[in-house]
């Protein structure tokens, strides 16, 4: 453990400062496909009983009309965050008519590309913009890739904690710039060590054979309907998942907020020849929002993002540029198919320990090829992380994954102990020990457990995920929401539908002008 980390932990461990660690905020976003009883993608519209996907704060859709996204509020207690996520699941399951929430990150058998429904958000300018953006994604990446689902974990530390560290270390930067720089430092360390999350929580070592649509691949055949890699942890996060040659040249390495925002500004304002050749419209119909490398900043798919809550009508990059980084969004987590919510408290408590370690540990700039090594370690772990003796690159040295993982977990133990001291109990230390058990025995990892289940039952990936989906539905429906909680969700759904109607009634001008103004909001900054 570094001297800097030791000093920072000692400072935060003082009685006057310890309560700051209990003020970190957590939020979870969980994506999940709606499927029919056979595990086929649901082709039905977003259920009206769930409210408006455009305006509901908690239940929306991502790419496809069938790809639900559940969004919790923030809480200082991850257990409360998970409780809210569970209530959202229970309400939704009660409103699905002979449909289920798919239990895995990778989809089951999908219909033809042209039959995968893109999410609709109504007739307002904002709703149409969201739809056209998704049409652009289909054009650029294909619809099949948009049916992958994951867990996003949002995490922030209280501003008073950053103020304490800034004062103690005599940093001359103003509060906003210091906080942003420290979050960017957290992200650099996340890039260094996130291969560990792939090993510990990767849960997609196999996929339905039709997912690749005849593309060339290096996967092996597990059965007639399933492809896999024997040592893989997360095919979702491998180069079989979200990939695109245009984005391949985009490598923001998070050495400071300015370089990160500049790279995104360039990407959303620079035409890309292949997209320019297609154009934005054909026969009067919009095909994509623009022909730039990225249509909008959120099109850049990274394993973690610096974020700032946006004001109404404000774009994410505008918020970052105006007010700096407020929290981070971890985006590389697979859905655990053995868990009804796809994530549990043990994982959340470990993520808190991991992210606080990344925030407090020394974080030098990514130099001399380290950015590339971070990416290589991540992808190597995704495709063969459980391979015995697997070697990763730590600096210029080659080191065995298990050895490095053990060293990192040992380094994190004082962080876990301090969090437990602040919150009470032993939850963080126990979560850390649960991860060490996976390092010592790879068969305990979710990816190994998935493959073991497929082999033991002679199941395809689809049959396994369908069975888990049905089991989770039974679990969630077995304990209905309390009457007042059910009524609250019903009210939220009705209010969201009314809110969408109000937005549609208030629109002025034509859609083309609306899109032009939306583009200009960032282009003016870029230029």
Helix content: 40-55%
Do you know the CATH topology?
A: Creatine Kinase, Chain A, domain 2
Main sheet overview: 7 strands, antiparallel
Q: What is the average per-residue confidence, as pLDDT, rounded to a whole number?
A: 95
Low-confidence stretches: none
Q: List the domain count as a whole number.
A: 1
CATH architecture classification name: 2-Layer Sandwich
Domain Glutamate--cysteine ligase: 10-379
InterPro entries: Gln_synth/guanido_kin_cat_dom (IPR014746), Glu_cys_ligase (IPR007370), Glut_cys_ligase (IPR006334)
Pathway: Sulfur metabolism; glutathione biosynthesis; glutathione from L-cysteine and L-glutamate: step 1/2
Keywords: ATP-binding, Glutathione biosynthesis, Ligase, Nucleotide-binding
Labels describing this entry:
single chain; 527 residues; alpha+beta; Creatine Kinase, Chain A, domain 2; 7-stranded antiparallel beta sheet; 3-stranded antiparallel beta sheet; 18 helices; globular; nucleotide-binding; EC 6.3.2.2; glutathione biosynthesis; Glutamate--cysteine ligase
């Amino acid at each position: 453990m570094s001297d800097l980390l030791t000093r920072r932990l000692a400072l935060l461990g003082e009685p006057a400062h310890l309560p700051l660690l209990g003020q970190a905020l957590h939020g979870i976003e969980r994506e999940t496909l709606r499927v029919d009883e056979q595990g086929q993608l649901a082709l039905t519209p977003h259920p009206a009983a769930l409210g408006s996907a455009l305006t509901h704060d908690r239940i929306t859709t991502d790419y496809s009309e069938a790809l639900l996204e559940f969004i919790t509020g923030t809480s200082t207690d991850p257990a409360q965050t998970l409780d809210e996520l569970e209530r959202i699941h229970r309400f939704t399951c009660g409103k699905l008519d002979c449909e289920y929430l798919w239990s895995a990150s990778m989809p089951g058998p999908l219909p033809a590309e042209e039959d995968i429904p893109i999410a609709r958000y109504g007739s307002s300018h904002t709703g149409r913009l969201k739809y056209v953006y998704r049409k652009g994604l289909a054009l650029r990446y294909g619809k099949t890739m948009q049916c992958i689902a994951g867990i996003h974990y949002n995490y922030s530390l209280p501003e008073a904690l950053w103020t304490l560290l800034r004062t103690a270390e005599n940093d001359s930067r103003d509060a906003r710039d210091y906080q942003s720089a420290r979050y960017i430092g957290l992200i650099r360390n996340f890039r260094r060590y996130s291969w560990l999350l792939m090993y510990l929580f990767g849960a997609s070592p196999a996929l339905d054979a039709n997912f690749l649509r005849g593309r060339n691949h290096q996967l092996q055949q597990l059965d007639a309907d399933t492809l896999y890699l024997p040592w893989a942890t997360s095919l979702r996060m491998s180069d079989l998942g979200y990939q695109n040659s245009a984005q391949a040249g985009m490598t923001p390495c998070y050495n400071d907020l300015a370089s990160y925002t500049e790279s995104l500004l360039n990407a959303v304002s620079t035409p890309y020849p292949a997209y320019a050749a297609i154009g934005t419209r054909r026969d009067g119909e919009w095909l994509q929002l623009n022909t730039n490398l990225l249509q909008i900043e959120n099109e850049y798919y990274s394993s973690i993002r610096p974020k700032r809550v946006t004001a109404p009508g404000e774009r994410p990059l505008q918020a970052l540029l105006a007010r700096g980084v407020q929290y981070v969004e971890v985006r590389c987590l697979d859905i655990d198919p053995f868990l009804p919510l796809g994530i549990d408290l043990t994982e959340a408590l470990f993520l808190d320990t991991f992210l606080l370690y990344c925030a407090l540990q020394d974080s030098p700039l990514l130099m001399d090829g380290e950015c590339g090594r971070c990416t290589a370690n991540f992808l190597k772990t995704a495709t063969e992380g459980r391979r015995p003796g697997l070697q990763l690159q730590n600096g210029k040295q080659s080191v065995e994954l298990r050895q490095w993982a053990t060293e990192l977990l040992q380094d994190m133990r004082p962080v876990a102990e301090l969090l437990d001291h602040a919150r009470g109990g032993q939850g963080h230390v126990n979560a850390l020990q649960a991860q060490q058990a996976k390092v010592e025995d790879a068969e305990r990892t979710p990816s190994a457990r998935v493959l073991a289940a497929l082999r033991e039952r002679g199941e395809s990936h689809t049959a396994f995920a369908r069975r888990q989906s049905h089991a989770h539905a039974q679990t969630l429906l077995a304990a209905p929401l309390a009457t007042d909680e059910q009524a609250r969700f019903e009210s939220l759904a009705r209010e969201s539908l009314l809110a969408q109607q109000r937005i549609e009634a208030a629109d002025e001008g034509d859609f083309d002008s609306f899109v032009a103004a939306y583009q200009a909001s960032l282009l003016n900054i870029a230029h």
